[in-house]
Specification:
2 copies of one chain form a homodimer. Chain A is globular. In chain A, α2 (28-38) crosses α7 (128-152) and α5 runs antiparallel to α6. Chain A starts with 6 loop residues before the first helix and ends with a strand. Chain A contains 8 helices and 5 strands. By secondary structure, chain A is an alpha+beta fold. A 4-stranded antiparallel β-sheet of chain A has the order 1-2-4-3. The interface between A and B is large, with 76 and 76 residues.
């Protein structure tokens, strides 16, 4: 349910929240709704390499707990811990995505054919390193939108970058050759407000040419 | 100047725009204002590793032109091409950031001391590969917010990931050992509307645990 649609408030009021109200759960339907909005983010050749592994059960949270260092409070109290992965074989969805665009009238068949025939082979031949870079960027874009969308629904988030990346695949049962972990987002109803944080001025970090 | 503050419209109406109105320039003051809002994004230990190299002059755009492959139309017509870089030596701003937080009442001195004394050495000792990963993620978060903020101001963007990364440092005169290019954002007043694009359903890309 929409809590606020005020963009400035959503953007400037976002804080990292570490203590959530344990009583407040978020339904799978609502989580999917938020994810669907978040993935309006752009991605390289629209390959949408973001994948969401949403940890809500007690059992899965227990497996995650030892792998997130000093972030256990978020794990214990959040409605969900969302592991955002980048799919190194995202191009396998290429035909499905471009066919979907044609079927919904968003793209002419000949554009689909031309784009897929040039871009798919290019993508399939990228090095693992370069593909990792691309899916990391794209998954981060979706992650940022998710943090904002969550606030629209009245929830808060905490982005977690420090985790035991090597041990995540076994703990959460995903293919480590295919998926790279990018970020974990804790999401829930805030119990304690987050702290506002300082920013360098735009002048200090910008150069005009 | 605020064009709209409707979050849903900003988020769902965003398209990649490739043809801008060449007559519409954006002042440095307004670009800085948009950057300042975009960098409300979170970052790992608040190191804010994003840097903005804003290309607006004809001369600099000419140097950029051969390095952005099939994206020359955006370069030719946009008000600015913003190269977003990740600063691998972002920790050099650590004291300034945390001192700023203390000075503005956002953080007690003892928290500043404790956090800096543990986190700065950790950051300084990260491998180049790991630091690249972190600054790439953080810069992407700011990039996503910039794309949304631009729409608040009535502008549109096009994220460009395909560029000659090896030749950028010379063309735009930055230290290639220190800064990694993450994304180029074309920004300006749209002349042609962008195309809406297809997305996989949230169900297809989400697993619950």
């Amino acid at each position: 349910m929409t809590h606020t649609n005020d963009f400035s408030e959503i953007l400037s009021g976002r804080r990292s929240v570490r203590q959530f109200d344990e009583e407040v759960k978020i339904s799978q339907a609502e989580l999917l709704e938020m994810i669907q909005e978040a993935v309006r983010a752009p991605s390289s050749i629209n390959m949408q390499p973001w994948r969401f592994l949403v940890v809500t059960s007690k059992k899965a949270k227990e497996r995650l707990r030892p792998l997130i260092r000093f972030n256990t409070r978020q794990n214990d109290t959040s409605a969900a811990m969302i592991l955002i992965l980048g799919d190194l074989q995202c191009y396998e969805y290429g035909e499905q995505i471009y066919d979907g665009a044609v079927a919904t009238g968003l793209m002419p068949q000949e554009v689909r054919d031309k784009q897929l025939s040039t871009m798919l082979p290019y993508y399939q031949n990228l090095s693992k390193e370069e593909m990792t870079r691309i899916v990391t960027i794209d998954a981060s874009l979706a992650a940022m939108q998710f943090m904002l969308v969550a606030r629209k629904y009245g929830y808060e988030t905490n982005p977690i970058g420090g985790f035991e990346a090597e041990r995540l695949p076994d703990a959460l049962d995903y293919n480590k050759e295919r998926y790279v972990p990018v970020m974990i987002l804790a999401v829930g109803k805030a119990k304690e407000a987050g702290f506002p944080s300082y920013r360098l001025s735009a002048e200090e970090i910008t150069r005009f040419e």
